Structure prediction request, 363 residues.
Amino acid sequence: MKRFIFMFVGVMTALVIGAQTKNTSNDKDIEVYDSKTQAVLRTYKAGTYDFVVTLEGYGLKVYVKSKDSEDFFDAAYRVVSQTDPNPDPDPHDQVNKNKNTNLVGNRQYAWRLEYPKLREGTENIISVHKAQDVEDITLSLEWDTNKKAQRWSCFQFHGGTPNNNVERKNDFRQDPNIPSHLQPTHKDYASTGYDRGHMCASEDRQTTQEHNSQTFFMTNMHPQLHSHNGGIWKRLEELVQKWGYNRSFCDTLYAVKAGTIDKETDLLGYMQAAKSNMKLPIPKYFYMAILSFKKGQDGKGQYQAIGFWTVHDGVNYKKVKLNTLACSIKELEAKTGIDFFCNLPDDIEKMVEEAYDPDQWNW
Prediction:
C-alpha cells in the first residue's frame, strides 16, 4: 500500500511541478542512499539502468533496463568511482562461490575487490571512511573489539585518487565508527617506545586534506618499532605508492595492509597503553597484499598480484632488496589465515593467487 501511495503521489507531483531528471548518463556507477541515515540502499552498475528521476520531497525512481522503475522513498543518489576504469563486481549478479555476503549495514561495501574475506562474529566491526570531496572510499578496516586492534586496512588507487601532495596534519584521533572504549587514544602511545604505525599510509591518501586526514584514525594504526616503521615498512609503502599513482603501470591498484594479531604466536607481546588500562597487541609480522588491474589495447583487462611479508624487529634492513620480501598471495594466505581478493571471479582469483611474476612489477 505504501509503495502504491508513494508512486501515486510521485506521479502527481511530477505532473504538477515537474520531476527533476538528473543528467547523469547511464555509463556511470551510482549508489542510492537513505537521505536521513546515509545508508546505501542499492548500487547500480553503468549500463544496467536508463535514467534516474528525482521526485522533490518524496524520493526517486530508477528506471532499470527491461524492468519497471524501482522506487525509493526519502532517498537520493550519487555517482561513484567515475574515474575507476575497472568497476568492481556487482554484488547482485556476481558468480563467485567465495565472495563476501550479507552486504548490509557496515558490510555494505564488502563486495569491492580490495576487501579480504570478512571474519564472522559479533566481535568484529567494519569501519568505512569516505571524504566529502572524493567520490571513492578513503579506506576500510576490520576492527577486533576483543583485542582492540585492527585485522587489516584496505583501499584503492586509481585515476580518482591522484597524488596532490597535500599537507600532512598529524591529527591522530579516535575513529568515530568504533565505540571509544574499544580503541586507544593517541596519548596511549606516549613514551611506550612504539610508533603509531599507519597501515593505510598518509602518503597513500593525497587527493584532498580530508582524504589524508582520515588515515590518522587510531584504528588505522598498530604499535611499530620505529626501526621497522621508518625503515623497511616505509620503503614498501613508497614502492606501493610508486605503483599506485602510476597510471601507465596500472589503472587500479587494490591494497591490503596489516599486522598479524589473530594468533598469540604471531605477536611480540602487548603494549601497555600510557593513558588507559588497555594492552594493545604488537604484531610480530607486517604484510601487504597487492592486486593490480590494467586494461589492454584489446579492451580486456589483466590482473596480477603480489604479497610482502616482513619481520617486525629492530634490525636495519636498508640494504635488503624489496623483491626478496615478495611472495605469492597463496603463500601470504597460508601465513595469515586470511583470504585475500575473495570477490574476484573464482578462476581469476585462483590464477592471481597461485603465481606471481616479479618481472611484471616495476621495481
Q: What stands out?
A: The two ends are 62 Å apart (CA to CA). Residues 226-244 form the longest helix (19 residues). DSSP finds five helices and 18 strands in the chain.
